[in-house]
Amino acid sequence: MTIEEKQQEIIDDFAIYDDWMDKYEYIIELGKDLPLIDESKKTNDRLIEGCQSRVWVASEFNNGKMHFTADSDAIITKGIIALLIRVLDGESPENIAKTDLYFIPAIGLQEHLSPTRANGLLSMVKRLKIAALEVLK
Amino acid sequence: MTTQEKITFNVEEIRKQFPALHREVYGKPFIYFDNGATSQKPQIVIDTINRYYTSENANIHRGVHFLSQQATDAYEEARRIVQQFIHAKHEHEVIFTKGTTDGINLVATCFGELLTAGDEIMISGMEHHSNIVPWQMLCERKKLTLKVIPVLDNGELDLEAFQQLLSEKTKLVAVTHISNTLGTINPVKWMIDQAHAAGAKVLIDGAQSIQHMPINVQELDCDFYVFSSHKVFGPTGTGVLYGKEAILNAMPPYQGGGDMIEKVTFEKTTYNELPFKFEAGTPHIIGGIATGTALRYLSSLDQEAIHAHETDLLNFAQEQLLKIEGVRIIGTAREKTSVVSFVVDGIHPFDIGTLLDKQGIAVRTGHHCTQPLMDRFGIPGTVRASFAFYNTKEEVETFIQALNRSIGMLR
Ligand SMILES: Cc1ncc(COP(=O)(O)O)c(C=O)c1O
Q1: Is A35 helix (H, G, I), strand (E, B) or coil?
Q2: How many domains would you assign to chain A?
């Protein structure tokens, strides 16, 4: 699947929910499938400190593709990270660096990426892209 | 104003005055429990602001024309309303500021100018960052020492420690009247007396007390009292610094500019008298005027009934919360205002806040700008519900149901 197809798939998945609580129920479920970062890798340099919840991400580059693992102390944040990783994992650094994550506003989660939302997600997206750019250097 | 008949308290009638309470969010009736952050505005305040910009707008203190005079009168009338509301001795002891933060920074800068290396400033462990950082900056600038009154497990101040920390070196005690995070009402009258006996001045952060209790700065005998209009049903961008005349006169001005001067020449500028000495530049005119409107509105209500209603909401909410497994209330002081902070075992406050939001309920989650206090309790943050007199018991019931549902999803 291309990045576009993966994003479209998520948009379709969310289209069946018109109640916000159902959407969040689903996000919470997704958080349980998040490829968890190794406890030993939860170091300060992999920590993204939001004002409220904390996020750790680790990236790896193998055979031309990027792979991510992550964790957060908040479950909803975990669910949203799981979505991001579902889209970006296994992609080339070029793709990751240039991709527009339009599925987030499309499924109504843009508030979580606003700079005022204190959950570190915006910084996390930046971190994923920086990881990709560093491989490209 | 004071002789005006008090309207009997009826929460449904009061709610009609606050248009924002009648909206929906995410298709759900809106429940606003974030009053500690800011209050909603009554129609009369909204109307005052509208009318001003529609037909009364002019600059103040400088025009010869009709509207300028009218605006100046309204602004100065608002100052008198504030004076009466907080029972200041003089009108010119009321300085309009941008808010609590601005008032504290003004005092830190200008009162701070009177201090010398080795002097001590005392704050408490439950202060808002606004009442911490300006003092840290001052201490750094003037080589002063910052002392911190510890907080007890129940969220009260350790008053014995306070007494021990007081000395002839203490020049200023800056404490909050009510903790925005815990709801603790501090015994400020007693603390002010103790501080004065040691020769220290006292600043009271009234950001959370102005809307919840009668304030009499002369009875308290505080040297400074600061608050923000937006937390007391007025607009953002305006606040008040009350200071005793003698101290304000002894302090150098804050910012330079128009209004604060008496005479300007390139050789020497002389400063205007109080309160203008501390009000450089065109102020937030309608902010000041609407602050007066808000305080007048609040004064028209039956204060005792409001207090009883807010206490009922607090007690009911706390009772219901404690019935939920895993809920721990942070802040169990004997004297509390209508604020309840809590944590739920194993669940991040952010998750609860997000799910409550989706059910139409606005609470605050996080550290509430009191990070040292969160560290004191060893928690990353809390969920905080803060009630105003326009909230209802039914809203608290809905909130408890929504909280139960959220916890069910998150466990
Ligand atoms: C106790 C306390 N002090 C200071 C402030 C700062 O007020 P403002 O942001 O209006 O200046 C607040 C507001 O949250 C507060 O609750």
Answers
A1: coil
A2: 1
Name every residue whose Cβ is closer than 8 Å to that of residue B248 and which is 6 or more positions away in sequence.
Answer: B93, B95, B274, B275, B277, B278
**ipTM, 2 dp:** 0.91
| Average pLDDT score over residue span B322-327 | 98
CATH class of B47-299: alpha beta
Sheet holding A65-72, edge to edge: A47-49, A54-62, A65-72
Is residue A48 annotated as a catalytic residue, yes or no? no
Select the more confidently predicted residue: A20 or B63: A20
**B40, B178, B315, B339, B340 from B36: Cα distances, Å:** 11, 11, 17, 8, 10
User: Has this prediction a pTM greater than 0.90?
Assistant: yes
Q: Parse chain B into domains and list their residue ranges.
A: 11-42+302-410, 47-299
CB contact under 8 A, A119 and B350: yes
Within 13 Å and on the Cβ side, how many CA atoms surround B353? 27
3-state secondary structure of A5: helix
Residue in the structure block whose two tokens are 């830190």: B108
Q: Report helix, strand or coil for B381.
A: coil
- What are B143-200's pLDDT values in tens digits? 999 999 999 999 999 999 999 999 999 999 999 999 999 999 999 999 999 999 999 9
Taking CA atoms, what residue in B is nearest to A74? B348
Total count of residues recorded for chain A: 137
Helix (H, G, I), strand (E, B) or coil at B237: coil
CA atoms within 13 A on the CB side of B164: 8
Q: Are B343 and B379 in contact (CB under 8 A)?
A: yes
- Domain extent at residue A101: 3-136
Using CA atoms, how far residue B161 sits from A80, B148, B166, B167, in Å, is 46, 9, 9, 12
Superfamily designation of domain B11-42+302-410 = Aspartate Aminotransferase, domain 1 (3.90.1150.10)
B162 in Cβ contact with B310 (< 8 Å): no
Q: Which residue has the tokens 């207090």?
A: B307
Mean pLDDT of B276-303: 97
User: A74 CB near a chain B CB, below 8 Å?
Assistant: yes
Query: Shortest CB distance from A52 goes to which of B355, B365, B405?
Result: B365
Residue B204, amino acid: I
CATH of the domain at A69: 3.90.1010.10
Inter-chain touch B410–A53, beta carbons under 8 Å = no
Q: Please write the tens of the pLDDT for every residue from B1-10.
A: 444 556 678 9
Residue B78: count of CB within 10 angstroms of its CB = 29
